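Quick entry, no commentary yet.
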Amino acid sequence: MNILVVEDDIITGEYIKKILTVLKYVIFAANSAESALKIIEEQKLNLIITDIFLPGESGIELCRKINKNPDKPYIIAITAQEDDKILSQVLEAGADDFMAKPFSVELFKTRLKIAEKNINKNNKIITTQGELWDNEEKLKSMVDKLAAANKELENYAYIVSHDLKAPLRSINTLADWLREDYAENIDTKGREKLSEIQNKAIKMHDLIEGILYYSKARPSSGDSSAVELDKVIEDVKSLLSVSENIEIIRETSMPVIEFEKTKAEQIFLNLFNKAVSLNESEKIVIKTGVIKDEKWLQFYINYKTNIPGEKIFNEHPEVFTVFKNELDDEYSIVKKIIHSYKGEIWHKTKKENDMTFYFTLPKALEIEAVYG
């Protein structure tokens, strides 16, 4: 600890310095306020011990000047006059402690211990404040970067959605032209196929709109409604690439839940698509259902793959680390939706060709079960 002793009385000054030397403090000495201020400018001091009555400027005036510095050292004022008025002036000027001369070595040591304890406490506060300021700046920087990233994502989503919606509009228009211009050459089955194409285009348009809205990174849009999961599964099935070759068996009735319809469609569409991509059979069977307990709705999507395990590992490694890689678009979307509702998602392989996706949602979301 660095200590400045400001004392014009030689005997008192030597007495103080001798005690401080024994205690192994670093000592600086001055015999006036003017010389003390020069040392204060040049040295990093922790404690100043100053006499009140000095030649020229008084110790009280010195305290006032030191007190203007927000990082001022701890000050102990000393004087031979025990006067309440002087004591009040000294404390008001910025002194932290006061001692009357003469004082014993033990009293002086005690005051030094008190001073050191307060200095250490103040240093900790200053350090903590500095850390808080640093953390506040880091947090602000992170928030700014996150806001910029979210804005960039939103802009990207608008661009991508525009590029995706444009060909869908063209498909719809072309289907109308075919129906009108070749009406005589298209039979009933052909017209049904055109209607199916248009319905799928409309459905994809709605999904793109939902993804666009979701890209704004809102945990919930506030547009939750009663969603019939049985109907969601039927709608999603028609969007699968080879829907006529896919059989989806609902082993249980699916509940009606308070949810956002677009997000429910995204969950089942992404998981069904993954099950389809892992199967090269002409006929694909996917089994789905729900298991309920007091707190959770545990959904499952079971499928069998005829692709050899080695080929799956080489061509679809994400299945073995499912939902751990946030860069996998399909899984990151599903995981983000389910986690936003406090649920979990995982994947299990019972046998080499028997695989199941599981995900949970809170039981509190259930409105009623649909039977029939």
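second:
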Amino acid sequence: MSRREQTYDALDEEGARDNISTIKSSDASAKQFVEQTTDPDAIRYLVEDEEIDRHFHGHNNDTREKILRSETTPFDVKQTVLDRDENYNRDRDSLGTIRVPDRVEHNARTALQVGKPVVLYGPTGTGKTHFAKQLLAEACLDYELATATPTWTPGDITGNIQPELDDGDVEYRREAGCVSRGIQQADRYGEWGVLLDEITRADISQVFGPLYTAVEDDSQTIFVDGEGRDLQLTDDVNIVCTMNMSDRTVNELDDAITRRFAMIELRGYEEADRRKLYDDWLDAESMFAGEGTVISIHLGEESVSAPIREELIKLFEAHHKGINEGGTTDEDTPITEFGPMHYRDVIQFVGVACGEGGAYENNRARAVGEAFATYVAPRLLNTAALPQIERLADHYQTLDEEFPAFDLGPAVELVERQAETERRGIAGGAYE
């Protein structure tokens, strides 16, 4: 026996409020109202005030699915529904305020609005991946993150056919790639994102081939899914890629990607913008709140106290300028390009290590040096040649002398050991 349909006198927000008991009486009643209403405010009321999307539990929550698929549902209400689902929740609020330079933000937003995939490129530590997440969290209902590897094939992007054993028989299953999965989700719900991180770790020319064709021709089928549906790239699928300049320069990229993707450089931050980043990160750690936490600065036989927060910011700025502009070594030229995002790791390390019961609770000065040796110096050394390493050694020695509040010895020692290792390697090679 089929369930009798409920009759509603009004299908607007007022009708939803008047009939809320009936609507919430069953999944079928709620689903029927959502299907029939053409008032966005009615659905907004049901989701935001009554949380109708999670009123009915279990995997067969038809009301939730109808809300997500309805063209009447406002975009931000769909985001709210997905944010409540542990399978989709990206915790948008935790991504914080966008702090990249205005030009970068404006160009990236516009490129996505035009329908172009975006490549964010630049040196390490400039926040490319974090900004990509912020961009997609704002522009899309949700997104999938896929990090490239050297073993990637076109199938990781579009899809492939996998053999499976079923009672001794071989069957073949179609498995969608990350972009194809994005298309499937966009077909169901609307705006969806795909974040392809660190793409230069893969062979872009070989892996992106089918995607290039789809970007130019939206009628091109890039994959046929397990249900036999042709998957085609549409404007509802927002693709953002990131690449480190240490992996490859733009000039070394396949011409196909620079012709089809919006190439947006994320490089330097102005000092005021860096200060906003530092303040955001420091505010998140209780020991740096306000100016209450101090550190001793030993000046000869005298010792003074200063807020550790401000001393750290001065250190970060001196370190950043010395790396990117020079001035802390015998040369007034940059050592390399290096973004400010790495200092967040320093702040988090020090915040934990120097907190109550922390490993460096009674030696905050050492904690800062250990943090630089753990997070910052190794990243600088990763692609550095001997001349750069020697300058890095001078750089850290200078900072250690200029900032008596901190013990940067661990970073100095690490870089000097690496320089000595490189020298021995060169000498050994010359001898051979």
